[in-house]
Every structure is written in structure tokens, then in C-alpha cells.
Amino acid sequence: MSLLVVTSPHAHGPMSTSSVMRTVLLATLPGVIALTYYFGFGIVVNIVFGGAVALLCESLALLLRKQPLKPFLTDYSALVTSTLLCIALPPYAPWWLLVIGVGFSILIAKHLYGGLGYNPFNPAMVGYVVLLISFPLQMSTWAAPLGVGESVPGLLAALNACFNPGSFDAQTMATPLDLMRQNKGMLLSDLYAANPQFGAFQGVGWAGANAAFLLGGLFLLSKRVFTWHAPLAMLLALSLCALVFYDEGSSASGGSPLFHLFSGATMFGAFFILTDPVSSAVSNRGRLIFGAMIGVLIYTIRVRGNYPDAVAFAVLIANFAAPFIDNYTQPKVYGQRGGPTA
């Protein structure tokens, strides 16, 4: 009698690429709702239009590579990439900015390397950095949040800003991280008092958005989409750096730990960007190093660099280091005394 031989791993649940991607999209909802509340419908227009562009680019790439369309279009990976990129972009971005960013993320950062599972860098962050370097004015134009401006633009205004950007007129201002980076001579208490963008310890609207993305991240952790190692290591490293160099509010201070944790894309980056399973470290020990490295880089670039929010640059630099980290942190083979495996 012949025996059926089945090798490991053995699946114990209905886990698939499409189910994971749907769960990630669902987890972004609290953050998207918070951003919409504070900044208006620009984020929603970004996501919907960017998603359509992503599906078109994905179809084009699959046709050029002579791959079947349905399996790859229904795994939701293109929509996850475009959604993460469009959340990171300023609301009321012009249509051409979305097309360039999403197109670069899908066609170059993803498919040029072989498609899903082969990209060495986070595709959404590659597209973001390309836009940030190429179009710094458009990428720094953030609308005034609710609580600073009297109201936020509605859906029709958001559509007008996207498809007829020259006619869009709204109050825009620097983000709190940008104001902190540009501060050269004011005490933090004076900086906070002089700029309505600041709340008690963070920017108006940004704390709520970060708390919402934290909620979505905890949902992903509960579903075991990723482990806690990289996000926790990043948040702890960022907090430690801010705590060590915080001098209680002089002009040279880079901001308090709470300011850095709840400003910019901190929670969004911790739970939705650096947890990309393809471009991050694979072992738990490696993920701790990977996350801590990103936390240190975020603080360093925010305080000393030329860009106020450093999540994208920090993640891409860590993506470079991920293979090296993996080589020295992979688990030892049973019976091996030490050192990396061959």
C-alpha cells in the first residue's frame, strides 16, 4: 500500500494572499476616517482614483509579462500598494501626481523586480520618495486641519482639486513636523503658542489620525497578519531617541517622545509600512533589529535631515539592510553550534 507523503508546512487556517490583503485594507479604515474628518475628502478621492490607476497599471504589467489577469487582480495586492501610498500623500493632490506615484510603485518598484513576493523595497514607499524628491512643492501642500481652519473641503471640492487643480483654493500650511524642523530660535512653548497647528503636545488632527492607525495596527496584530517585534522595536527606539535628546523645550529640542509618536506617519509606518513581509527581515530577532533601525533613522532624519517626516526614507534604507540582517539573525539549524547558516 502506498502512503501519501505530504511535506511541511501544514496550513491550519484559511490564510491566503487575498485574505491578508483584504484584512490590511479593512484595518486602514479607522485611519482613513480620521484623516477624512480632520482634512476632508481629499484622502478618499486619492484612494479611489489611485486604486483605479493601480488596477490599470497592474493589468498592463501582467499583459506585458504574459501572466493571467484574474489571479493577480483579485489578490488585492495592487490595491493595498496604492491605498498605502495614497494615504501618505497630501489630500487634494492633483491627478497627475497620483498617476506618477502609483504607476511608479506598481510598474517599477513591484513588477520590474518580478511582481508580488520579489520586490526588495516597499513599493508604496518607493513611489512616495520619487514624488517627494521630484515634486517637493506639491508633496508639502497639506490642507489646514479641522480645528485650525473653520471647515474642511467637501467631496465636490476634493474632486475639483484632483481633476482641476489649478482652480482649487484652500488654506494650506506647514505640518507640525515641518515647523519643528525649521525652528531655530524659539522655545517649544513659544513655538506651540505662535502656531495654531500645535495642540497640547502634537499637531492638531495628527494625534487622532495616529491613534486611529494604532487601532488598525492592533487589529492586524490580533489577526496575526504580522508579529509585534518590528512595530514595537520601532516605536521604542523612536521614543528612546526623543527622550534622550529632549531637553524640556529649548530651541534645539527635537520634540518630546509623545510628539514624535503621535505626529506625521509614525503609527501608519509602524503597523502598515515596515511590516511588509517581503522587504523586511524574516526572523523575530531580525525584525527587532529592523524595527529599531527604522526608529533611530526616523528620529535622526526628522531632527537633522532635510525632510520633516522620515518614515519612507527610513524604511527604504532598512530594506537595503534587511538581507544583511537576515544573514546574521536567522535561526540556527537543529544541532548547529552557532553562526549563520549557509
UniProtKB/TrEMBL annotation:
Coiled coil start-end: none
EC id: 7.-.-.-
Modified residues (FMN phosphoryl threonine): T175
Any single Pfam family the record assigns to this protein: NQR2_RnfD_RnfE
Membrane topology, as annotated: Multi-pass membrane protein
Keywords per UniProt: Cell inner membrane, Cell membrane, Electron transport, Flavoprotein, FMN, Membrane, Phosphoprotein, Translocase, Transmembrane, Transmembrane helix, Transport
Transmembrane regions: 20-39, 45-64, 71-90, 200-221, 228-246, 258-275, 310-328
Chief subcellular location: membrane
InterPro entries to which the protein is assigned, alphabetical: NqrB/RnfD, RnfD_bac
Presence of the UniProt keyword Transport in the record: yes
Record's keyword annotation contains Transport: yes
Family recorded in the similarity comment: Belongs to the NqrB/RnfD family.
Subunit structure: The complex is composed of six subunits: RnfA, RnfB, RnfC, RnfD, RnfE and RnfG.
Protein name in the entry: Ion-translocating oxidoreductase complex subunit D
Organism, as annotated: Congregibacter brevis
